[in-house]
Amino acid sequence: MKLSKSARSLLILFALSGVVACSSSGDVEDAAQESDSGLSGIDATTQRAQQLQSEAERRAAEAQERIQRAALQTSVFYFDFDIAEFRPADRDVLTFHGQDLGANPRKSIRLEGHADERGTREYNLALGERRAQSIMNFLIVNGASRSQIEVVSYGEERPADSGSSDAAYQRNRRVEIVSR
């Protein structure tokens, strides 16, 4: 079926007027809702922005709480060979532990220092203690009380891995946080 040029133009015009009418009806509805609620466009926009901001703050708080819970589940901190200072990557996790102890004065922990089998027994006991003391001092700076923390060194006596490889030695150079 062939349509004349004028009939095609009328159909196109009719279709466009329907699109225009549909798109403008949303503005009329929005304006009607604003007038019903007594809010101007600026007030409604401000209110929506505040809602979005409070939602973002709530989500950020939830995310922070999840991060803190995960950090508090981390209880083993590894050290480099013959070093008593914990790694910079562990600072954030240890900060959460210190803050948690500060917020819970009845909570107490034991820091168990360990070393690999290289070195004398006495040296490894002293190194394990220095490692645990390093973490204890950081926890105290971040809110913990000295009375909440017990320090014990096992030196090389309680290896996490009984192997003699570099990987085994790495797993043995550690401080463990144990709840009491």
Written account of the structure:
By secondary structure, this protein is α+β, with helices and mostly antiparallel strands. It is built from five helices and four strands, in the order H-H-E-H-E-H-E-H-E.
Sum up the structure in keywords.
2 domains, 180 residues, 4-stranded mixed β-sheet, alpha+beta, 60s Ribosomal Protein L30, Chain: A
Short description:
By secondary structure, the chain is an alpha+beta fold. The protein is built from five helices and four strands.
CATH fold group of the largest domain: 60s Ribosomal Protein L30, Chain: A
| Total beta strands | 4
Give the CATH superfamily of the largest domain.
OmpA-like domain
Morphology:
elongated
Question: Treating each run of at least 4 consecutive H or I residues as one helix, how many helices?
Answer: 5
Q: Which CATH-level-2 architecture of the largest domain?
A: 2-Layer Sandwich
**Major pleated sheet:** 4 strands, mixed
- CATH class division of the largest domain: Alpha Beta
What portion of residues is helical? 55-70%
Q: SSE order in H/E notation? A: HHEHEHEHE
The number of distinct structural domains comes to 2
Q: How large, in whole angstroms, is the Cα Rg?
A: 33 Å
Structural class by sheet pairing and helices = alpha+beta
Strand content range: 5-15%
Low-confidence stretches: 23-29
Mean pLDDT: 86
- Amino-to-carboxy terminus distance: 89 Å
